[in-house]
Amino acid sequence: MSLIGQPDESLVVDAWLKSMHDVLSVTSQNQIPELNEYQCGTYKMHSLDEAKAIAENIIHSGIGICHNQDIALTDAQLATMGH
Q: Which of 38, 43, 53, 77 is least surrounded, with the fewest CB atoms within 10 Å of its CB?
């Protein structure tokens, strides 16, 4: 996930975890709003079972915070990539 601006990181992490728990509480794809041919062009590609597996993995793994400056490549690294 990428965010624009300077949101409070702990609030974003908390909201993301809550949304993953929300995914786990869905019992049927019929409960998902807009999951139909008129409102979602890729509605046939969605899988509730896969979404639940992803949510469980995220909850189990935890959510970390990564700052751009911590992952910036050096000029030497960029040079090895042909940039």
A: 38
